[in-house]
Amino acid sequence: RAKQHQLGIGGNVRGCQKTPEDVKKKLQEAEDKKKAAKMAKSGEVNENPDDMAALQEISRIRSGKRQSEEETMLPPQKKNTTKGPLDAMYYKKPEDTIGKGKQTSINDAFDKDARAKCCQYIARFFYRNGIAFNVAHSKSFKLMIEAICNYGAHLKPPSYHELRVPMLKEELRLTHEMLESNRKEQAKYGCSIMSDGWTDTKGRTLINFLVNCPAGTMFVKSVDASAYMKTGQKLYELLDSFVEEVGESNVVQLVTDNGSNYVLAGKHLQLSRPKIFWTPCAAHCLDLMLEDIGKIPRVDKVIKKGISIVGFIYNHSLVLNLMREKLESELVRNGVTRFATTFLTLQRLHNLKAKIRTMFTSEEWSKLNASKESKGKKIAAIVLQVSFWDDVAFALRAMGPLVKVLRLVDNEKKPAMGSIYQAMVEAKENIMNNFNNNESKYKQVIDIVERRWSIQLHHPLHAVGHYLNPKYFYSNPLIENDGKLLDGLYACIDKLSASAEVVDEIRGELAKYRMGEDHFGRSAAVRQREKIAAAEWWKRYGANTPNLQLLAIKILSLTCSSSRCERNWSAFEHIYSKKRNRLEHQKLQDLVFIKYNQNLKERYDSDDVIDPVVLDNEIDSSNEWLLGDEVEAQPDLVFDGDDLSWLDVDIASGAAKPTINTRKQVALQQKKAATPAPRPPQHSASSSRTNPKRKAVKAATVVIDEFDGGTYVGDGDDDEEDEVHDEEESSGGGSDDEEDLNFNDS
């Protein structure tokens, strides 16, 4: 008050009229210096005059006033922006107001211009601070903008200290509050501990620990386990300590990858804590199956060729531009695992094969320098090979049913424990059907699946989940005679029951479930056996069998995969490995905890999560994407309504070896036939085709003579009908020369 009185700056006291001007000037300088120091300490900066002018321009544009109008007006008085208790009471939460929009008004044109100027400041913030563009898709970014708008003008931004200490503590509290429902579900129905290790750029081995329950997945912590990963015993001690932290009574299973150290640690854990199961990650097991299938020579060859095609296109900017113009799509599709990505990319190639072929026979392609390079010629030759597309179809038929199961186990909202057993049975059946139940064609693939399934993936929890799923139990009258399922059922009852009395009660309650009695037999329960999730079905109709109901909900709510651990690797490394980050360890853990759990919650709550539990409607095996049938496959036509096929282009362009006899070849065969010596077996077309008609085929800009007709050599599988194709397979495949087989994976 004394300063205000002497300076005469108003406030709650009248200004002094007797203060000398030189004293008032010194007092004002001291006051300004003090304010500047205070602003610097709080992280505020003096406004750039140009920026202030721009901000005033935005305000002027939004008001719809012309510059000439403003010049004739009195200088605007600064608004009173002081906010009191009532302002906080009526503050609108951004979650409630975002997306509601506003009515169209006469000022929309002015708003558009003002928005452009305002957004330029937001863009500049992104550019100057190295923020990734995809942050603009983040829900939290949109909520931040909405919150600023709801506050109004002159919002004082948070300071460095506020962001680092009090606001971080508050966000941590809110995150724990958000996860309270998860903890209640863990105590009620049990949970799965998910663990997965990875190595960061500094060579440290880190393990992420997450807990999954019916309410979603919750990140708990990451541990530098470099000293624990060397032996199974050390790893067991780490896992055991985490089980103790979560609470043994809450844990039903521990899900890890299939490394030998995890296998040993899991076995030790089951011995020391007999009420807990160790389960290998189903996504990892399925990826190993896909990897083994990828080692089959025919599949391995087509994967390498596919990588060559995609790599060549994406590493030549002009070719990439042509591809995007012709295909109107990208070629690479990312999956949850490495070999899922391989499958999805091959699938994309197959779906776009007509456009890809057209692209590599177009005039635009022939004008590019890349088309004249040896690498470009090899890629074009592969694309025009019928045998290459047959091999793509073969790979999709072998891998497709397993990718379908991979999508099932990777589901966020509906746990797959009650479905994975049936999904694997159907996957094997679909693989056989894809090859027309010809054992010689599918045997190698099925052997791979059986080996991995029996050794690593088949588990008592999978069996009991299948048994307690009403969709499968009541539709299969033979299920009660399946010894493997019953072994798994009784093992789980004994392991997860609190006492022998509970075991006896559950076995007694099983009779009602088997016979469909009580609530199980109600018309609504019967109708919903296949319509709702199995765990939800038990919640609605299992009340009169309380012990069996609790067991069923526990098991049917379990996850089969720890793949959600893997999704968080990059986020953790971004925070943990930043050289500029000097936060102490606890603040670092708090940041990771907040980021992981809020991302997991947002993903779980999103409406566009794939729901692959309905197995019949997701991917109807590979045949859903593949055109034609293996037995009755016909060459694809270049143009609808014409008889010119891509097989003709294949032969005419020299991409493949000729599958018909030229006149010279026919003459040589006739000469050999006239000699008494036995003729070696031929893999060429029949000698009855001695005088085929000629026709011209235009490949790119070159007209090449070729013979009309010829035998169709590829239908997506190896059999006696594909003699020429088989010969090419044995010598290296397709029409490639030996040097063409060694492509760099560019």
TrEMBL record:
**Could you tell me where the Basic and acidic residues compositional bias lies?**
19-34
Tell me the superkingdom of the source.
Answer: Eukaryota
An annotated Gene Ontology molecular function = protein dimerization activity
- Give the region (Disordered) as residue ranges: 1-88, 662-746
Q: Which residues form the DUF659 domain?
A: 158-306
All residue ranges annotated as the HAT C-terminal dimerisation domain in the record: 518-597
Identify this protein by name. HAT family dimerization domain containing protein
User: Species name for this entry?
Assistant: Trifolium pratense (Red clover)
Origin organism lineage: Eukaryota, Viridiplantae, Streptophyta, Embryophyta, Tracheophyta
